[in-house]
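Model it.
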Amino acid sequence: MSYLPIDLMTSERRAYRRLKVETDNQTTAYGSLSVESLEPIIQVTAQYGLRDDVLTAVIGGTVSSVDSKYRVTSGTGANNVATIVSAREATYRPGQGLAARFSAIFTPDTPNQKQYAGFITSESAFAFGYNGTEFGIVRSINGALEQQELQITTSGSGDITVTIDGNPYTVTLTSGTVQHNAYEIATSLGAQVAGYGFSSTNDVIVCLAQLPDFGGGAFTYTPLASGSVGTFTQIKSAAIMTDEWVAQADWNVRPHIKINPSLGNIYQIQVKYLGFGGIRFYVENPETALFELVHIIKYANTSTLPIVKNPIFRIGWALRNEGNTTDISVEGASAGVFVEGAIHPDGRKRGFCANATGVGATKTNILAFKNRTTFNSTANRAEILPALLNAATDSGKTAVYEVILNPVILAGESLNFQSQGSSELAEIAIDNVTITGGQVLTCFNVKAATPLTLDLAEVIENILPGEVIAISARVTQTPTSEMTVAINWQDDL
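Modeled.
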């Protein structure tokens, strides 16, 4: 029998251990060596302040951007909440991992509060943070947002009172159809009510809370002297997520990694999913500047229920007081979410064509396009991916087309959005109303002999839930003209 020299055995063992650590940090969520590119889906950074690429929501707390960092603070209210998350959500793609990378600074040693940084939605979360005075990781499940629907069955004009979560608001209706009144109500409440979003489709207004802490109050419709009739129906009641914390001392890979969570550190989370896949948590080693695997949620062979109900996530920072009355904060400089490998959307491609006659010098909607706020009675978290846009006119002069994000229309007019089917995200409005505002994304000129085809994906990459894209047109000189718009898109579910 022969033996390897002790020094060779030792060196080989050390090399193996070093290789093992290194490969642990260079694998996909599915364990293969990471030779695939990481495709960025979300990238947010704080040096330019709070922009429209992040969403904020508070109850008593504050959100801000200070010293090139996002900051959420609790204030001293015992039940305060504050959150900053990406406006865009990362769509899970079966068989591909999701990776989140982010920085965070936490407030230690404060009882009766929770702090989070990582994958965060109202329904579920995978994050680093604090559970009271203990630093660790968390899996959060079974959250829900309050969702109500208000259906207008009889139109009217005059003042009405709409009570949202126990608080009354006055809305003035003008004469028109039930669809017109529904649009007026959604627009007015959207400008008045904090903590809720409103969207109308046909004669129904969807009322959706922004945080699971809202809900529980009354939702009523009082017509006063308007003659209108409306009825609320609760679709889903609010529920705060259930947290499953694992303190650092109980991490199952490297619990003794030396970091100070009150200082800035870099973290990574890998999500495998497929319903029952494990979740891996990493921390940057301050000595080597490499990610080190510190904990794995080992979920396979443990349950008959998926690890979360809907694996679509935002990235961000949040905190919640649960009796704490000390002002605490969570901060982070930037964050990104990546798909491991190339992205191939799998939704069906769709299209729609609209025509308008008698268009003059006034900017007029030809086709408005909205990603619905709810889908199959659930808060919609899927995107619409624009494709080709075709525009044509019979005008012998120049017709000016504009693509407008979240248009504002002339008072007294309405966009009556219609569902394209229960299985489709898009809602379409072809009302030829006057557009007076919104963000112009692009504009172009068209003449009768030269119709234009535009790759709309070069103008706006995705349409998020609740966002509206309007295609408007006008002529530079009389007479009035006929305008045609065709748009193509793909649902990214």
